[in-house]
Amino acid sequence: MAKRGHARTHGGESSRLQRRYSDLPGSGPGPAPDAAAGKAAPDAGRSKSPRSRNPARAMPIALVQEPPESRRTLDGATVAAGRPPGKISEVQLTKNFLAKEIEARSLKIYTVQQRLGVSPFNWTGEQHKLLIVSARLPFTVIFNEETGVVEYERDPFDTNILDLLASEPGGRFGSASLAQASPVLVGAPVVRRKSDGGLLTNIGEALQEQLDACLRADHNAVPVFPPPGRDIFSDWVIFPLFHYSLPSAETGLGIFDWEGYELVNSKFRDVVLKEYQRGDLVWINDYPLMLLPQQLRQERPDIPVGFYLHCVFPSPEVYRILPQREELLRGILSANIIGFHNFQYVQHFLTSCIHVLGLECTASGIEACEHAGGTHTKVITVPLGIRLEPYQALLNQRETRDRIRELRETFAGKKLLMAVDRLEEKKGIRHKIMAFHKFLQKAPHWAAECVYVQIVEPADEPAEEGESEPGEQQKLLQQVYQMVGEVNSTFGKIGHLPVHFLCQNVSRVDQLALCARASVMIDTPLRDVLPHSAYSYLFCQQEKECGVLILSEFSGSAQSLRAAALCVNPWDTNAFADAIQEALEMDPQDRIELHRYGRNHVTEYTLNHWAVNFLDELLTAKSECESERLQIPPPLDHDKPVSAMRKAGRRVLILGFAGTLMPHSTRMNSGIFPRLPSVLLSNLQVIAEDPNTDLLVLSSLPRDTLAHILANVPCWIIAEGGICYREPEGTSWCSSVEKRDTDEWLGPVKEIMEYFAARTPGSKVMEMESSVSWLYQKTQGDHAAIQSKDLLIHLWAGPLQSAPAEVAIEKDAVNVKPTGVSKAQQLERLLQQICYEEDGDGEKPSKKWLPGNTLVLCVGDFLMRDEDIFVTVQKFFEPEGSERPKPASTPDTDRWDQVITEREPHWTEDMNLEANSMSLGTGYTFLSQLERDQRDEEGLFGLHKSPLESVFADATALPKKVPSEPDLQGATEPDGLVGDSPPFPSNEDDVHGLPLVFTCTVSRKPTRAAHHLSDTNDVAFLIAKLARELRQAKQVSE
Q: I need a labelling partner for 335 at 20 to 30 A (CA). Which of 194, 638, 715, 1003 fits?
């Protein structure tokens, strides 16, 4: 199948830049590869469907800088910047080889730095690249097969991101954070033969090398050469479906090349990774590259990636039609930040993530998960615009002013209506003519007083294979001709026709002259992102005689321009006709007010504004994600906290409940209070009763349930997800939420949950004082998953749309609680009570620092949204004004290696680096997959087994219940893991007098904690060891 689309020539508007490389391979004459024929046509600067769009224009992607004016040849006098694009010397090859080795070693160091809490890399400190990746480079390459000369054609109205950034005030890039960027374009070049304008689809290796040298020297662009004919999935499936063009029964979706789409993205991945160096930024653009963020993240977990979708994102019901719906979502969710043109597209995207992947969404994006590479994915709205400078320059030309005067004379005494569209169904051309026809039927006196000029730019492509003549565009054109003839034959007369229909390429000068003269602009696409015609119309109009814009409700800018236009539903012909009449008869003052708002919006939200804002957001998201990134930590060696427990003068133990003290599988919604095993309760009681130990238990369960389960344990309890707490010796509960704060939404939310509970067998609603939960642990899995997603949609679209409440997706539960309430916040308040003391004068409390031999242990299987508990604990115990050398929970390299050597003699630093990056990518590959699997079975590579599991010959023989004290003794003493354990390595925090802090999650998973325990049994073993140390210490003191 031929590649779709053809480049357009712009005559005097194009810049033709010549570079001659006659000595390069492939520069001489030779047979021309096959190409799809096509004629050149001007570009109106609007979005195009892939069936007719200019492949040289990857909207809106960058062109870097104009090449020097001098002609550089290898056989002439001048050479490009002292580096000829000829053969690479042996020295250069050696440097390239060493660069890869250095990069690999730097990556190891960077991974260790991340685990040791080293501050994030400063992107602005030195020169780095900004890789701007798009499916096509924003210019056309013209290749002369006879002479080997390479020329370029570009339209000044096409987007040039680098010019946009450079034109912003305040520096080269208009943003201080981008001042050190060295932009590089990455994309597939559109290459045409100079002889006949034919598209070169099969570019040989010799010509690829020549183009690579030319593009790097002239435009700082890196070409990508994807396999030809393998991009039809994006053009024939994604683009139409995103614009609500559903597949027919004849075509379907399964016949298109999904493997080709993956292959094209993989080709881009290889080129980007070859260019990328640590500290660079990657900006990926549009739907042809939706898999690229994930592919990059798999190879380089630390890579900062931004993704911007330039087209419509459809509603979830339409998006779910795609067979590859999950793969595409996972692909772009690996970006640090995802940008859309308007808020509606953001809502569609987030809702699709809920429906398709079941992810937890917040107001700012997607919670940290494996699909997001272990980080929070920020989803933002950054509206597109137009670049004003080319329009202003063209309006100032004498030719344009003369053309405006001619139009005024030609249509003197008549109102002029205009529309400019591509010949595409989604542009709604037939709907416009039907509405104009209806308008003339309602107001026939306007037939002689107005003229409607409809310009249609024809598709300049031949019929594709499998398409019947005359093709879809020709069928649409015949229908439009028939409708125009009917209007003119009914309301026209000699010397005047109400509709002027032009199916031709109209020059840019004529288009802008029409925009400046027209009284009404009709821009009503059925689906589109940015109405370029509407923006250019608002900019070209003069306030003293301004016109009126009629805009489609389904345009991507309808939300932004609603106060500047008459918004209509193109399918409502009667209302559309009334809008045309209203626009023609509108009061001049009302027209001025509409125009003033629209022009202010167009001049403020330009492409310059868009580019700088998105890059600033990407830099912010990059720095946030560097501190957030989740990794799989090594297992907690029980000897460390046990030894610290033995020596500590003060102890703070923070424990989760579900998944930590009690397995998640325990039935919590049966109406019968679950019970902890007596041995575990006894050990907790010993720890809580110690006068030098503070025990805190955190849970989302109701307060009554926790009070009953922990009745004999004098500990601090945080219940209901942080809403309330109870002191160790207290009987009453303290709440951090006033009841009046929940009156607005608690009742409606409960009503919706009860509605779903009645229709979901096995589920129930649990109401607490300030929150309410829908529990579906006993419900059939697939049915519960569907119902929970629908419940979220109803909640966010209903009572929680503007209420001060948030949704927490928990294990087999959906919980709604007040905004700003969390376990971490409540924990920090309680830690202040424990570790702060009031001054004698009643002044602000000061921190009562614990001695250097203090143990702080935080263990919990928390939800991703509650992982900030680990960060809160670590930061809380850092004294003000001091610089902790390294977090105590994150071992330094010497101690780390020492402990690892004691536990696993053959464990190496490379293995540790590999283990901590396995969940995020495959870039650090030191062993084969078979070796990795074999070692992981032994618990050596993934470190997923606890230290006690090596005692048992068969891992499946581990006790499924919480072990008793005899089990503990039998498991630990024989191998000397506790009784004869080596002395705990000296901690650097002891020297500085800081508490020794351990943060630990339960199960092997990406987390913000520094260690992990294998399961609740492992937690029970650790608690039993800690309790035994206290018992032994008590016996010694007695």
A: 1003
What span, in angstroms and rounded, lies between the C-alpha atoms of 942 and 975?
Answer: 23
Better pLDDT: 194 or 882: 194
- Give CA–CA dist 710/682, Å, rounded: 11
Binned at pLDDT 50, 70 and 90, residue 478 comes out as very high
**Bridge pairing between strands 337-340 and 305-308:** parallel
Structure tokens at 27: 């520069």
pLDDT tens by residue, 590-630:
999 999 999 999 999 988 889 888 988 998 887 776 656 66
Average pLDDT over the chain reads: 75
Cα 1021 to Cα 611, 797, 953, 969, 1030, distances in angstroms? 55, 46, 18, 10, 15
Q: How far is CA 90 from CA 83, 84, 93, 97, in A?
A: 14, 15, 5, 11
Torsion angle in degrees (nearest 10) through CA of 887, 890, 893, 897? 150
The two tokens of residue 774 are 């829908």
**Residue 328, CA atoms < 13 Å, CB-side half-sphere:** 25
Q: Which domains does the chain have, with CATH numbers?
A: 130-381 (3.40.50.2000), 388-605 (3.40.50.2000), 638-736+823-839+846-879+997-1032 (3.40.50.1000), 743-818 (3.90.1070.10)
Contact between residue 702 and residue 719 where contact means Cβ atoms under 8 Å apart: yes
Q: Please give the sequence-ordered ranges of beta strands (E in DSSP) within 556-607, or none if there are none.
A: 566-568
- Stronger pLDDT, 535 or 82, i.e. the higher one: 535
- The rounded distance, in Å, linking the Cα atoms of 442 and 582 is 12
Element (H, E) at 19: strand 17-20
Determine which helix (DSSP H) or strand (DSSP E) holds 415, and give its type and residue range: strand 415-422
CA distances from 554 to 313, 357, 523, 621, 791 (A): 12, 27, 11, 30, 27
Find the mean pLDDT for residues 780-794.
78
Q: Is the pLDDT of residue 556 over 70?
A: yes
